[in-house]
């Protein structure tokens, strides 16, 4: 897979390193000469250019990329890169970094963004995920379909503890994608039973999140009554 990363700072280089280890072809783009540190990621291609300029993106052959990641520290730049990647070059997947949470509302399909990653929000979500039981935590927002990746740790008193996945009437527009149980990562089947303490990851429409949280958090005595 060919991936172009706009922004060769610490974030961009870290992403490049991870993707290179997984066998992907990486191009790092940055307009600042001081950011071009080939020795730090020698396996990547490097391009000294302004990723907001069509001529630069032509030189980068963006149309050959499967994914573009807008990872600069400037939200305006990330939006422009995302829009150009999607509308001018038809890149199938565009991921954009959100630096200021106040700008999150802009990072959607109107600007060509498929996935927006807000570092401050992600950090706070991971803190919540680590300490919250029975509360739905939003981990990641997907622009298409207004869907989110959400997590809930099933509380001890949940009425669904011991219930098979296939017997649960999940809300519409939600999908259970993973069960994390201790050190195990399970791909849920209809026959798998939910256990107290399971970390459940869903892709869910935002409008269904409250309904999903209510379903998972209902107490046994409430269900019995």
From TrEMBL:
<dbReference type="InterPro" id="IPR006037">
    <property type="entry name" value="RCK_C"/>
</dbReference>
<keyword id="KW-0406">Ion transport</keyword>
<feature type="domain" description="RCK C-terminal">
    <location>
        <begin position="137"/>
        <end position="218"/>
    </location>
</feature>
<dbReference type="InterPro" id="IPR050721">
    <property type="entry name" value="Trk_Ktr_HKT_K-transport"/>
</dbReference>
<keyword id="KW-0630">Potassium</keyword>
<feature type="domain" description="RCK N-terminal">
    <location>
        <begin position="1"/>
        <end position="117"/>
    </location>
</feature>
<protein>
    <recommendedName>
        <fullName>Trk system potassium uptake protein TrkA</fullName>
    </recommendedName>
</protein>
<keyword id="KW-0633">Potassium transport</keyword>
<keyword id="KW-0813">Transport</keyword>
<dbReference type="Pfam" id="PF02080">
    <property type="entry name" value="TrkA_C"/>
</dbReference>
<dbReference type="InterPro" id="IPR036721">
    <property type="entry name" value="RCK_C_sf"/>
</dbReference>
<dbReference type="InterPro" id="IPR036291">
    <property type="entry name" value="NAD(P)-bd_dom_sf"/>
</dbReference>
<dbReference type="Pfam" id="PF02254">
    <property type="entry name" value="TrkA_N"/>
</dbReference>
<dbReference type="InterPro" id="IPR006036">
    <property type="entry name" value="K_uptake_TrkA"/>
</dbReference>
<dbReference type="InterPro" id="IPR003148">
    <property type="entry name" value="RCK_N"/>
</dbReference>
<keyword id="KW-0520">NAD</keyword>
């Amino acid at each position: 897979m060919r991936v172009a990363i706009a922004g060769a700072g610490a974030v961009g280089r870290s992403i490049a390193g991870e993707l290179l280890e997984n066998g992907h072809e990486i191009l790092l783009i940055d307009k600042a000469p001081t950011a071009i540190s080939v020795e730090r990621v020698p396996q990547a291609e490097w391009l000294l250019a302004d990723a907001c300029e069509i001529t630069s993106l032509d030189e980068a052959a963006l149309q050959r990329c499967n994914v573009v990641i807008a990872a600069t520290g400037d939200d305006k730049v990330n939006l422009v890169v995302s829009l150009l990647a999607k509308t001018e070059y038809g890149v199938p997947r565009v991921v954009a970094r959100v630096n200021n949470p106040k700008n999150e509302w802009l990072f959607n399909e109107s600007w060509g963004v498929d996935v927006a990653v807000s570092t401050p929000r992600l950090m706070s979500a991971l803190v919540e995920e680590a300490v919250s039981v029975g509360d739905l935590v939003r981990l990641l927002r997907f622009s298409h379909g207004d869907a989110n990746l959400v997590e809930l740790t099933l509380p001890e008193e949940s009425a669904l503890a011991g219930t098979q996945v296939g017997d649960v009437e999940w809300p519409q527009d939600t999908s259970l994608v993973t069960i994390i149980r201790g050190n195990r990562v399970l791909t849920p089947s209809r026959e798998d039973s939910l256990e107290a303490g399971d970390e459940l990851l869903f892709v869910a429409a935002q409008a269904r999140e409250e309904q999903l949280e209510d379903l998972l958090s209902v107490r046994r005595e409430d269900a019995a009554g």
